[in-house]
C-alpha cells in the first residue's frame, strides 16, 4: 500500500493539534509538529530555542531558512519514511516549495492537505482557554475540554500551563500573520488538486469523523 503523506493546515487554534492526536492513534502516522519542536528547543534553551523564542512570543513566524532545515531533517528520520502528518509546516509559499522539491528528489509526493477552518472570534475563544501539558503536549480547554481536576493533566498529573504565545495581545498578531503569510497556501495546494476543507467549528469528534472519511478515501485511491 502507498504511504500517507499528509499536511494539517489551518489558523492557530483551529484544532490541528487536537486532530493530530486523534489521527496519530487511528492511523499510526508519525506526527511532526514544528511548533512542538520549537517549544522543545526553547525549553532546552538551545541555540535554536533562543533564536526562535523572540519570534514565537511575539506571534511571528520563525524565518524560513531556520525552519526548513529543521523540518527536512525530521522528515529524513526513519520513522517518517513510510508516511507522515505535518502540523504547522509549511506556513509560507517558500516552505511549501522546499517541501515539494525535497520529496520530489526521493520520488515521494504528498497524499493530501487537510485544511481545518474556523472563524477568528472562535479562535480567540479557543486559544485564550487552551491549557497544555508542557512535557507531552497534551491539549485541554478550560471550557470545551476541561481536565478532571482543574489545572492538572488527567493522564500523568502534570501541572497544565498556558503557552507564552496564547496571551490575548499575541493571538491577534498570530491571526494576522496567518491570513497574510499562510492562508495563500490553500490556493497553492488547491491548484495542485491536493486540498480538502473541513469545518473546524464543529465538535472535535465530528471534525475527526469527516477527516477520517477523507483519509480512508485517500488510502483507497493510493491502492488503485
Ligand atoms: P504552532 O504550535 O504550530 O501553533 P499554531 O499553528 O498557531 O497552532 P496552535 O497550536 O495554536 O493551534 P491548533 O490548530 O493546533 O489548535 P489546538 O488543537 O491546540 O506554532 C507556534 C509558533 O511556532 C508560531 O506562531 C511560529 O512562531 C512558530 N512556528 C511553528 N511552525 C512554524 C513554521 N513552519 N514556520 C515558521 N514559524 C513556525 O486547539 C486549540 C484549543 O481549542 C485547545 O484548547 C483545544 O482543546 C480546543 N479545541 C480544538 N478543537 C476544538 C473544537 N472542534 N471545538 C472546541 N474546542 C476545540
TrEMBL record:
<keyword id="KW-0547">Nucleotide-binding</keyword>
<feature type="domain" description="Adenylate kinase active site lid">
    <location>
        <begin position="130"/>
        <end position="165"/>
    </location>
</feature>
<dbReference type="InterPro" id="IPR006259">
    <property type="entry name" value="Adenyl_kin_sub"/>
</dbReference>
<dbReference type="Pfam" id="PF05191">
    <property type="entry name" value="ADK_lid"/>
</dbReference>
<dbReference type="InterPro" id="IPR033690">
    <property type="entry name" value="Adenylat_kinase_CS"/>
</dbReference>
<dbReference type="GO" id="GO:0004017">
    <property type="term" value="F:AMP kinase activity"/>
</dbReference>
<dbReference type="InterPro" id="IPR000850">
    <property type="entry name" value="Adenylat/UMP-CMP_kin"/>
</dbReference>
<keyword id="KW-0808">Transferase</keyword>
<dbReference type="InterPro" id="IPR027417">
    <property type="entry name" value="P-loop_NTPase"/>
</dbReference>
<dbReference type="InterPro" id="IPR007862">
    <property type="entry name" value="Adenylate_kinase_lid-dom"/>
</dbReference>
<dbReference type="Pfam" id="PF00406">
    <property type="entry name" value="ADK"/>
</dbReference>
<keyword id="KW-0418">Kinase</keyword>
<protein>
    <submittedName>
        <fullName>Unannotated protein</fullName>
    </submittedName>
</protein>
<dbReference type="GO" id="GO:0005524">
    <property type="term" value="F:ATP binding"/>
</dbReference>
Amino acid at each position: 500500500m502507498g504511504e500517507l503523506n499528509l499536511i494539517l493546515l489551518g489558523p492557530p487554534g483551529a484544532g490541528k493539534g487536537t486532530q493530530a492526536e486523534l489521527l496519530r492513534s487511528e492511523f499510526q502516522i508519525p506526527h511532526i509538529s514544528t511548533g512542538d519542536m520549537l517549544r522543545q528547543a526553547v525549553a532546552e534553551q538551545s541555540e535554536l530555542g533562543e533564536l526562535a523564542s523572540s519570534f514565537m512570543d511575539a506571534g511571528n513566524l520563525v524565518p524560513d531558512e531556520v525552519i526548513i532545515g529543521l523540518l527536512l531533517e525530521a522528515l529524513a528520520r526513519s520513522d517518517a519514511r513510510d508516511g507522515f502528518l505535518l502540523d504547522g509546516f509549511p506556513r509560507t509559499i517558500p516552505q511549501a516549495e522546499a517541501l515539494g522539491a525535497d520529496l520530489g528528489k526521493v520520488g515521494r509526493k504528498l497524499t493530501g492537505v487537510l485544511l481545518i477552518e474556523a472563524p477568528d472570534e472562535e479562535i480567540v475563544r479557543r486559544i485564550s482557554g487552551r491549557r497544555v501539558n508542557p512535557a507531552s503536549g497534551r491539549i485541554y480547554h478550560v471550557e470545551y475540554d476541561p481536565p478532571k481536576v482543574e489545572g492538572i493533566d488527567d493522564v500523568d498529573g502534570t501541572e497544565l500551563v498556558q503557552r507564552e504565545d496564547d496571551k490575548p495581545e499575541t493571538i491577534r498578531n498570530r491571526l494576522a500573520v496567518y491570513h497574510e503569510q499562510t492562508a495563500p497556501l490553500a490556493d497553492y495546494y488547491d491548484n495542485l488538486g491536493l486540498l480538502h476543507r473541513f469545518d473546524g467549528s464543529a465538535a472535535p469528534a465530528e471534525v475527526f469523523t469527516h477527516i477520517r472519511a477523507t483519509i480512508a478515501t485517500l488510502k483507497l485511491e493510493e491502492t488503485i
